[in-house]
């Protein structure tokens, strides 16, 4: 999917450059309306790919959350300790490594902001969209509906549904747990979780240090 997004985004960037060249004095556009229509087509395609990328990121998070919850329930019923080793393995899998996808999302948003600065509704990042729905505004305006089209609206609604589910999973727990969904994805948009900076590594390191302190002889 990421490869497909890279190709599609590059094609859109090339289309943008061609439109700029045609509008730079060559007079290839028959009228201003033709130019506006071409730019609107590009905008719709940018909005579509942006929505698909954000949706894929959210589904990646939901998949991980589901696995963590299954392992938690299994450990609780059996008294086992499978969650830690399984989670460490999952952190290295492609479906949870969203750093390249995050870069593509930001690049897409940068193009939208540059080309359509007055169209704020299409440059919503995941945080902005999440905040708007925390304020209980589930309705999609008629203006947004007419601008995005049916296909984009389906992506838009699916993205919002995934975000609502993620927001519920990210609610703070009464007790701290480094393997909880909210802890692991607290800084998802700023950095990708890796073996070096994962909460698992920090937790294990702290545990080792505390064990070392416990084995030291008391000072007299």
TrEMBL record:
<dbReference type="Pfam" id="PF03105">
    <property type="entry name" value="SPX"/>
</dbReference>
<feature type="compositionally biased region" description="Basic and acidic residues">
    <location>
        <begin position="205"/>
        <end position="220"/>
    </location>
</feature>
<protein>
    <submittedName>
        <fullName>SPX domain-containing protein 4</fullName>
    </submittedName>
</protein>
<feature type="region of interest" description="Disordered">
    <location>
        <begin position="185"/>
        <end position="220"/>
    </location>
</feature>
<dbReference type="GO" id="GO:0016036">
    <property type="term" value="P:cellular response to phosphate starvation"/>
</dbReference>
<feature type="domain" description="SPX">
    <location>
        <begin position="1"/>
        <end position="88"/>
    </location>
</feature>
<feature type="region of interest" description="Disordered">
    <location>
        <begin position="125"/>
        <end position="146"/>
    </location>
</feature>
<feature type="compositionally biased region" description="Polar residues">
    <location>
        <begin position="194"/>
        <end position="204"/>
    </location>
</feature>
<dbReference type="InterPro" id="IPR004331">
    <property type="entry name" value="SPX_dom"/>
</dbReference>
<dbReference type="InterPro" id="IPR031142">
    <property type="entry name" value="SPX_prot"/>
</dbReference>
């Amino acid at each position: 999917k990421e490869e497909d997004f890279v190709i599609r985004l590059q094609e859109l960037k090339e289309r943008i450059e061609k439109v700029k060249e045609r509008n730079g004095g060559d007079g290839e556009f028959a009228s201003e309306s033709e130019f506006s229509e071409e730019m609107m087509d590009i905008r719709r395609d940018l909005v579509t790919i942006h929505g698909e990328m954000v949706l894929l990121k959210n589904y990646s998070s939901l998949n991980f959350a589901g696995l963590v919850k299954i392992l938690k329930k299994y450990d609780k019923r059996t008294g086992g300790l499978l969650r830690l080793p399984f989670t460490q393995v999952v952190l290295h899998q492609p479906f949870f490594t969203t750093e390249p996808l995050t870069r593509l999302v930001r690049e897409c948003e940068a193009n939208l902001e540059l080309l359509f600065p007055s169209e704020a509704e299409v440059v919503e990042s995941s945080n902005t969209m999440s905040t708007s729905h925390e304020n209980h505004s589930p309705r999609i305006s008629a203006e947004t509906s007419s601008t995005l089209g049916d296909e984009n609206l389906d992506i838009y609604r699916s993205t919002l549904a995934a975000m609502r589910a993620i927001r519920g999973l990210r609610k703070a727990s009464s007790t701290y747990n480094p393997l909880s969904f909210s802890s692991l994805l607290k800084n998802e948009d700023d950095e990708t979780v890796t073996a070096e900076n994962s909460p698992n590594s920090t937790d294990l390191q702290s545990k080792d240090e505390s064990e070392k302190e416990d084995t030291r002889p008391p000072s007299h």
